[in-house]
Amino acid sequence: xxxxxxxxxxxxxxxxxxxxxxxxxxxxxxxxxxxxxxxxxxxxxxxxxxxxxxxxxxxxxxxxxxxxxxxxxxxxxxxxxxxxxxxxxxxxxxxxxxxxxxxxxxxxxxxxxxxxxxxxxxxxxxxxxxxxxxxxxxxxxxxxxxxxxxxxxxxxxxxxxxxxxxxxxxxxxxxxxxxxxxxxxxxxxxxxxxxxxxxxxxxxxxxxxxxxxxxxxxxxxxxxxxxxxxxxxxxx
Length: 236
Known about the structure:
By secondary structure, the protein is α+β, with helices and mostly antiparallel strands.
């Protein structure tokens, strides 16, 4: 069931970089038609090729962006709160290039695309914010392309584990953070190749049991992975 936004939900949107600094009147116009909806796990929010009717904001749960072709499917990105998607299709009034589905029970705010485009034309600050968001998205695509084209599958897995290790304050034991099947898809591997790669990383101090990762030699793992800020730093 769709529910109008509460004040705290409006404040959550207001705090996002995309909406910061917008004139109060323009912000009110932007969200006047917005509503929040609760979705159970594994619900497809939209399908690639469909018209972009809404800008989506994840405020709880998680959402997977994925794409399909010729019977194949790949994970593009996993979104956590609080984040927006997909800005480019919304601004261009273009079809979605990806599909989206919930991975767990999720609470999503839907902002009508026509309102987003209207305020884009009316508010210079919002227009600059959109350009910044799109630029960051483009740079993310470049980093991901470099990761896929310049590294072997084993190196991609090693750098994913190094990144997770850093995110977990370099804890010796941490959670993989994603199902192995989805991780394999995200890294451009088959599940079978992922299993082999995990075994190949054992000499570098990596042990993975289910979703539990144990790092016994972080120095050797990092030396093998050779992480680069120009590929692995999402802020670069």
